[in-house]
Amino acid sequence: MPSLGADMEAGTLLEWRVQPGDTVHRGDIVAVVDTEKSTIEVEVFEDGVVEALLVEPGTEAPVGAPLARIAAVAPAAPAAAARPTRAVAAGRKRAARPRKAKAKPAARPGTAEPAPTVAPVAAHLRASPLARRRAAERGIDLAAVAGSGPGGAVVAADLDRATVVPAPAAPEAAVPGPPGRREDRQAAMRRAIGALMARSAREIPHYHLATTIDMATALAWLAETNEQRSVSERLLPGALLLKATALAAREVPALNGFWDGSYRPSPAVHLGVAVSLRGGGLIAPAIHDADRLTLDELMAALRDLVGRARAGRLRSSEMSDPTLTVTNLGDQGVDEVHGVIYPPQVALVGFGRVAERPWACGGMLGVRPTVRATLAADHRATDGMIGARLLNAIDRLLQHPEDL
Amino acid sequence: MTTTYREAVRAALRDALTRDDRVFLMGEDVGRYGGCFAVSLGLLEEFGPDRVRDAPLSESAFVGAGIGAALGGMRPIVEVMTVNFSLLALDQIVNNAATLLHMSGGQFNVPLVVRMTTGAGRQLAAQHSHSFEGWYAHVPGIRVVAPATLEDARGMLWTALCDPDPVLVFEHGSLYNIEGELADDAGAVDIDRAAVRRPGRDLTVVAYGGTLGKALAAADQLTADGIDAEVVDLRTLRPLDTATIVGSVTRTHRAVVVDEGWRTGSLAAEVSARITEEAFYDLDAPVGRVCSAEVPMPYARHLEEAALPQVADIVAAAKELGG
User: Fold this and answer.
1) Computed over its alpha carbons, how large is the radius of gyration of chain A?
2) Cβ–Cβ under 8 Å, residues A34 and A178
3) Is B277 on the interface with A (CB under 8 A)?
4) Cut 0.80: pTM above it
5) Which of A307, A359, B79, B154 has the least C-beta neighbours within 10 A?
C-alpha cells in the first residue's frame, strides 16, 4: 500500500487492474485505492510479472503492507528470487502484530482483515520511550502506528508516518454503509487535512514573504497570443503563474524538495497544485516536471489534473511527488494567501487575484493589473534571503512572458 | 611525527622522569629487560637504577612499596605486567591505596600511578588476557583511565601523576604496536572527560581502550547501511563522564556499549544503566551491549577471536537497534 501523501496511514483497495500472470511495466496502473481524500490509481514501480494478489478488493490495508507480489522478469534472476521473499517476510511480520489491527475508526463491514485472534486484554504496547514521549506531545495514538523497531516496537521514526487519529465515535461501527459514503469521506478528509495542517503548524517554523508583481506585460502578451487561438486553446493567466513558479523553483533548489530531519532537494520540479474540491476539502496533486512543459502542455496538464482531482481519479505518483505547492485563490477574489506548507515540502507559493490597482511606475501613478505573490517557507531549510530570491525570480520571469 | 603507542608511553615515562625528581618507575622486568612489552626499553640506561627499578616477583610487595613511597612524598609509577597479575595486589590497591585518604580523615593522599596491560587478542590465554578494569572502576578512591589513542598514551600519564590520589592506567596489549601521527608538542591531556571520536547522528557506540578501534571500524562499515554512528571513547572509566555519554545518546537516541569484559556485572552494564537512568525518554531502542563471551579467555586463535567483541558483532548489534 503506497503512501499517497504525508497524511495517509491506510487505504482501501477498490479494484485490481491486473491479474496474476500479467506482465507489468514501471508506470502501469495496477490497482485503484480509496484513501480518505480521494480515489487513487496506483502505479507500479517495477517491471515484472504479477505472481499473486495478496489483498482482496474491499480490504483496508495499512501503508507499507504488501498488496501484491511481483516477480522480476527472467534476466534479473537473483533479484527475482530476492524480492518475493522479502514481500512474504514483510507480510508475515505484519500478521504477527495483531495489536495494530484495531484502534482504527469503526471497521467497515465487508472490510474485515483476516481476523487474527485478538487477546481480550490489550497486550502491553511495544514502543520506545522516545516514541511514547513524542506521541504524547503530538497527540498520536500509538496503538494505531505500525512499528518498525526491534521486535516490531514503535520507534520515533514511525510517528512521522502516522497522524493524529481522533478517538472514533463509539457507536459508529453499527452503521452499515458502503465505503466512501459522502459524509464519511467529507469527515475523513476534514480530519486528514486537519491532522496534516496541524502537524505543519506545529513542526514547521514558517516564515512568510510577499511581493506585488506588475502583470501588465504578461497580460498584454497573453491577450495577443489568445487572439489567434480558439476558445478551447486559450491560455489562462494561472498557467503563466505556474510556469514562472516552476522555473523559479528550478533556479532556487533550496525551496524545491523535502524536509525529513534534514533538507533533501529534488532534482525535478513537480509542482503541487492546490485544487479545491466541489464538495469541500482540498487536494494538491503534482504536475510532473512542470518546469519542462510548454505553456500549452502545462495548460492541458492543469485542466486534466483539476478534472481528475474533482472526479476522484488521481494517480499515486501525483499524490506523493509534489516538490513545491502552489495555491491560487485569485478566482475566489482574495488579494493574498498566507499559506501553510504541505509536509514534507518546505515551501508553498500563493497567488491572489490579478486586479487593476494603482501602481507607481517611472515617477507616475498609473493603473496596472498586479498580483500579490506570497511565499510560506520552512525556516529550518531556508532563510528569508532565499525566499526573496524565489519571489524575485517569479517576478522577473513574468516580465518576459514570451520566454515562459 | 610518526610513532607507536609503545613509543608514546615511553615518551610519557621519559618526560615524567625528566620533569620531576620524585618520579620513579618500578615493576617486574621494567629495567634490565626493558619491560615485558618493551615499553621501558632504554630508560634504565638513561635514568639509572634508582629511578627505574626492577621489582621482585611479588605484586603485593611492590605495589605496597609504591603506596608507601607515595605516602612518603615520592611520585611512583608502578608497572604491573598484566591486570590478571594485579589481582595479587588487589588488597594493596583496594584496601590501602583507595582507602587511606578517607580513613586518615583527609590527612594522607596516595599520589600513586599504577600502569598495567589489559585485554586479550595475543593468544596469551586465560591467565594473561582478561579485562578487569571494570572491577577497579567499581572502587571509590581511585581513578581509572584507559588511553586508546596515541595522544592519550602520551598525555594521560603526567596528568595522572599530578593527581594527588591513586590513578590506574590500563594499556590494552593490542595497542602497543599501533602506529600513527602524534604532534611533536603533544603533552598532558585531561583525564576527566570522555571524547567523541567520530560524530554521527543515528547511533552512539560507546567504547574504550582496545575496543575503540573496532568501534570506529564498525562505524565506517555502518555507513554502507546508511547508519551514521557516533563513537564515544570513555577514556576515564572512573569517574565516568556521564554527561558526554548521555549528551550523545540524547542526540542519537540509540546506543551500543562495547566492552571487552564479561557482560555480567560489567562496565558496559554500568554505562547502560546510566543511559537508561538519564536518557530514558530519549531512547528509541533498548541499549545494546557487545561484550566478551563468558568463558575464561581461550588460547586457540579462532576461539579467542570468537570470544572477543569483533567489528561484525558491533555492526550486528547496531543494526538490531534499527539505527
Assistant:
1) 23
2) no
3) no
4) no
5) A307
